Amino acid sequence: MNVQIPTHLLRLAREKAGVNQTGLAVELGVNASVVSRLEASEQADGKMAERYLRALKSDFANEIVAFFSDQWRHIERPDFLHPDRSVLWDAERALQTLETFEKGDQFEPILQDPLTKLRNRIISEVDFIRHKEHGIAFIGEIGVGKTTALSFVTNLVTRNKEEEPKSIFPTGSGRTTVCEVAIKIAPAFGIAVDCLTEDQIRRLVTDLVSGLKFGKSGLPSELERVIRSMADLRRVIVRGKKPSEKPSTVDHLKNLIDKFDDVDAVIGEVMARMKLETRTETQMILSRDTEGSMEWLSSNISKINYGQHAKFSVPHRITVLLPLEALRETPFLISVIDTKGVEGTTQRPDLMAQIEDPRTVTVLCCKFSDAPGGVPLSIIRETIDAGSDALASERLCLLVLPRNDEALKIVNDAGDTPADVAEGYTVREAQIEQQFATDGLPSIPINFFQVGADAPEDVWHWLTSRIEAIRTAKVERITRHVAAVENLVTNADVAKTREARRTIADTIAKAAERFRTLPNVVRPAHLNLVAEAKKTHQNSIAASVNRKGNWENFPVAHILGQGVRIDVNLRTKDTFVRIDEAIEGLKDDFAHLSDVAQFLENLKDDVEEWHKDFLTRVALAGRNLFTPYLGSATEMWDRCEKRYGGGAGYRVDVSGIFQEQFESDTGAMTTAQKVEGQVAAIWEQIIIEPLKDASAFSEED
Question: CA angle at residue 586 from 584 to 587, to 5 degrees?
Answer without folding.
Answer: 60
